[in-house]
Amino acid sequence: MDSLTQIVLGGAIGNALLGRKLKNKAVLYGAIAGTIPDLDILAIYFTDPLSALEFHRGITHSILFAIFGAFFFGYLLYWFEKKKGVTYEEGCWLFFWGLFTHSLLDVFTTWGTRVLWPLDYSFAFKSIFVIDPLYTLPFVFFLIRSMLEKTDMNRRMNLNKWGLYISSSYLALTLLLKAVAFYNFTGALDQQHIAYKSMSVKPTLMNTILWSAIVETKDAFLIGEYSFFNPEPVLFQAYPKNREVIGSLEKHYLINRLIKLSEGCYTFSEKHNEIYFNDLRFGVLKGQGDEVQFAFSYKFYIDEKGELNVKEVKKDKRDGLKLLKSIGRKIFGLKED
Hints:
Elements: H1 3-22, H2 24-35, H3 49-55, H4 63-81, H5 88-107, H6 133-148, H7 153-191, E1 198-203, E2 210-216, E3 220-227, E4 236-240, H8 253-261, E5 266-271, E6 274-286, E7 293-302, E8 308-312, H9 317-331
Antiparallel strand pairs: 1-2, 2-3, 3-4, 5-6, 6-7, 7-8
Helix pairs in contact: 1-2, 1-5, 1-6, 1-7, 2-5, 4-5, 6-7
C-alpha cells in the first residue's frame, strides 16, 4: 500500500499495544515500524531500476525480517522508554506487529510480496489497489480521534479499535467483491466462447467498483473490465503477444528477468524499429491499436558496453489524471469523450 496507509496502520498497531503507556508516542513508534519495510525503495540509488524493482517487497517484507527486526528495534524502544514502564517484550511486540502487518497488508495488493523470503515466491491476493481512499480515510479519522483523546484511555483504545475493525472489514469485503467480479468475467468468457489458459482479476485505480481481468489465450492477452454499476456485457480488448519480434533473444537473461517481474503477463511491441516489453499487470494508460500505451513498458537498447539493456518508458503525469477520469466514466458505463 501507499506510504500514508502503512504509516496509519503502523500507528494504529503501536497505539493498540502501547497507547496507554506512551499515548501518542506509541503512534509514532508504530508509524516508524510501518515505514521501515518500504525503505527498500532506496535501492534505486544503489543499483539499476530493474534490479531495484526485483528487490522491492523482498527481504524487508519477510516474516524473518519482522522477527529479527523486532529484537533490534524493540530494544531501542525499550532503551528510550523504559523509564515509562515499557518492557523489552512490549517493544519487541510493537515492532514485530508493525513490521509484519505492513507485509500482510501488501499481500492484498496487486504487487506480489515475498513474505516467506528467502523462498522466491510472491503472495498477492490482488483485491485492493495500492491506493484506496475507502480503506485509508476511515482509518485516518479514527486514529486521529483516538490521538486527540488524552484522558479517557478506554475511549482512546475503543476509537483505535474501530479504525482497525473497519479497515480490516473492508479488506475482507474486497475479497468478496473480487470473487463476484471473477464470476462475471468467467461467465463473459464462456458466453463469448473464448478459450483461455489463465486469468488474473484485480481492481482498477483507487477503487473496488471497476475490476480488470487479464486473460491469456494462445496468441494474445485479453483485457476486460467489469463494473458493479454498469449492467453492460463485458468486452475484451486483444493485445497480441508478438513473441516473434525478439527472435533469437527469447532466452536472453534480461528478458527472463522481465518475464518473471511481469508474472508472465506481457507482450512485445515494435515502434520506429525499437522493441518494447509491455508489462500488462497494471493495464493500459491510453490509446488503441498501434498507439496504445501501457502503464509499464520497457524499451530495449544497446548500452555503452555493447550489451542489451532496458529502460522504463517515462509517463506523462497528465496521463494519470486522464486515467482517473476514464475510470470514473467506466464505473458508470459512460462513453469516453
